[in-house]
From TrEMBL:
The gene is pyrB. Catalyzes the condensation of carbamoyl phosphate and aspartate to form carbamoyl aspartate and inorganic phosphate, the committed step in the de novo pyrimidine nucleotide biosynthesis pathway. This is Aspartate carbamoyltransferase. Residues 151-300 form the Aspartate/ornithine carbamoyltransferase Asp/Orn-binding domain. It is an enzyme of class 2 (transferase).
Length: 306
């Protein structure tokens, strides 16, 4: 299939994404049919940064396809702690595995890894830059729960500066007709200009930037909440000042549309009150479930087993 690696959400065309979503639907409907399709294949999971969902869902995905996994979740247990370069690590791991999912704190590291790898590299998050497989999960969730990917007003709230899932989602949604964005953040955490200019303004997409969530609750079809990214801040005081900027609770949900959905890449800290979990518009745990199926479909495609 397609590109050998997935580094950036724009690496695949809209048509290629449709193929992945179609396969994900097939897997959801008949998982048994795919349960041995990756027999003999090994996924390497190189996680230089913490993860629950991405790492586990990649691993569960490969196991459910009949393949095996090896990897680390703590870089200090790898030879990176002895000073091995990323290039050398990737050269080695690509000898032992058939496909690699890598998360790394440095922006651009997945691209670098792809230059040295003999097997497909999947970017599982590179610093504050991109998180393309989260975007696949986000798009599949929207496609399933909002009956397609076109014509949605997408509210994105929280840390739009450092949130890599936000950057990837804006890029991806900017290709679907009728998309509008409502960007909600403190002024210190606005979407970076390069994303705004290249993917929103250049495509003549209608958008607004506001600081108060309350003012726009009733405008959006999808509300994508995000965590303030403590680990990306250079200044702890600044983080502490901004960390509680937004808390979505049952009171605010009263102003939302009946058919609006609330998404969140997770983990959450306190930006969505637990009481919202019981609202039937809360889609974030379903989103995490779709993430596993879409990663199954992605690996099948990149490995060429379907
Ligand atoms: N959404 C996401 O990337 O979660 P983890 O950091 O737990 O992998």
């Amino acid at each position: 299939m397609m590109n050998k690696h997935l580094i950036d959400p724009m690496d695949f065309s809209v048509e290629e994404l449709d193929e992945i979503f179609e396969l994900a639907h097939q897997i959801i409907n008949d998982p048994k049919k795919f349960s041995k399709i990756c027999d003999g294949k090994i996924l390497g999971t190189l996680f230089y940064e913490p993860s629950t969902r991405t790492k586990f869902s990649f691993e569960a995905a490969m196991m459910r396809l009949g393949g095996k996994i090896l990897g680390f979740s703590e870089p200090n247990s790898s030879s990176a702690s002895k000073g091995e370069t990323l290039a050398d690590t990737i050269k080695m791991v690509s000898i032992y595995t058939d496909i690699i999912a890598m998360r790394h704190p440095k922006e651009g590291s997945a691209k670098v890894a792809s230059l040295y790898s003999g097997v497909p590299i999947i970017n599982a998050g590179d610093g504050g830059h991109q998180h393309p497989t989260q975007t696949l999960a986000d798009l599949l969730t929207i496609e399933c729960l909002k009956k397609g990917l076109r014509g949605h007003t997408v509210g994105i709230c929280g840390d739009l500066k450092y949130g890599r899932t936000v950057h990837s989602l804006i890029k991806a949604m900017s290709r679907y007709e009728g998309t509008k964005f409502v960007l909600v953040s403190p002024k210190e955490l606005k979407v970076p200009n390069y994303i705004k200019q290249e993917f929103i303004e250049k495509n003549h997409i209608e958008f607004m930037e506001v600081e108060r969530l309350e003012d726009v609750m009733e405008k959006v079809d999808i509300l994508y909440m995000t965590r303030i990214q403590r680990e990306r801040f250079f200044n702890e005081e600044e983080y502490l000042r901004l960390k509680d900027s937004y808390i979505l609770d049952a009171e605010k949900m009263k102003y939302a549309r009946e058919n609006m959905i609330v998404m969140h890449p997770l983990p959450r800290v306190n930006e969505i009150a637990v009481e919202v979990d019981d609202d039937n518009r809360a889609a974030y745990f379903k989103q995490a479930e779709y993430a596993m199926y879409v990663r199954m479909a992605l690996m099948c495609k990149l490995l060429g087993v379907v």
